[in-house]
Design goal:
single chain; mainly alpha
Amino acid sequence: MFNLGIAEIAVIVVIGLLIFGPDKLPKAIKSLSEGVRHFRSAASDATRSLQDAAGWDSSETRQTLSDLADLHPKRIMGSILDDPDASRSAGSATSGNPKSDAATKAKEPGALDYDPDAP
């Protein structure tokens, strides 16, 4: 969440020791974590009550957003390129490499066993 490294955490602990002292630092950390936990639960309760009041179904919205994400051009092209049957039926583009193109042709039904373009 905050992307803190070991050095940053050490600096925060040293500053906490200087401000609160070694006796009160554990109590301060405990009360801070309880406050954050209480704030998160209050925020989720408020969100839930607003959704209920508005009659909003979050699972339906998530499904709609997921459906929209599937329409991203990269995902569409990835699904087309990953599916060998779809690329073959769409007139699969050749890679420009004669050896790999010949291997692809050999896998197709009714393909010739030899390469007619070979010298």
